Fold this sequence. Notes:
The protein is of the alpha/beta class.
Amino acid sequence: xxxxxxxxxxxxxxxxGKLVVKDLALxxxxxxxTIRKDITHLEKMGVAKKTHGGAIxxxxxxxxxxxxTSTLHRSQKAAIARVAVSLIGRHVTMLDGGSTNLAIAKLLxxxxxxxxxxxxxxxxxxxxxxxxxxxxMTGGEVRQISQDLVxxxxxxxxxxxxxxxxxxxxxxxxxxxxxxxxxxxxxEIKRSMLEASRSRYLxxxxxxxxxxxxxxxxxxxxxxxxxxxxxxxxxFVDNVAPYTKVLIAED
Length: 251
């Protein structure tokens, strides 16, 4: 019975991309702890990654909505944000979308005499009323799943800014010879920010080594450094070391 339930959970995970512990405990009439043990088994199989309240499919090429990614790996993202902000002086700073850059924006809201350029609608409420921050939004079309502005107007406005430093995220760092994202629209805006900035940082938590995405948007050598958390796989660090620095943020 246990093996059958776990096979069914694996199939559901592949099909739906996620599992929710409470719902599954009710469906199978078992305890939530039993479902968590099932998820641990699936994680050992290499198909699941635990999240708060469930699991996601680690090989899922589909992009998770911002409402879900913003709740994952919060302590790691906060640690990454602290390192990132320590690298910013009184300069023009570019932030693309994503929950790690939102964590950076929260710390920047406490800074003075800084200009932030972003295409992220999620960052607006954090910085719009911060007294020491001049906030500049790109134009563009709203991608609802990520709450980012993309397209011609977004990339054009970025190209017209001389930025001291940019921080970009990624959906995956598991493939290719650089980070990847889920759409060509995201590739365009990330490339624009990299090209407009003197210093370029990739900000990714260590879970991104366990996910896949479709389009590579840069090579490792294009980054001043990669900022990640202490859970990062040592093999990844060794692989990118010839091309760029890896800064480890301690939780």
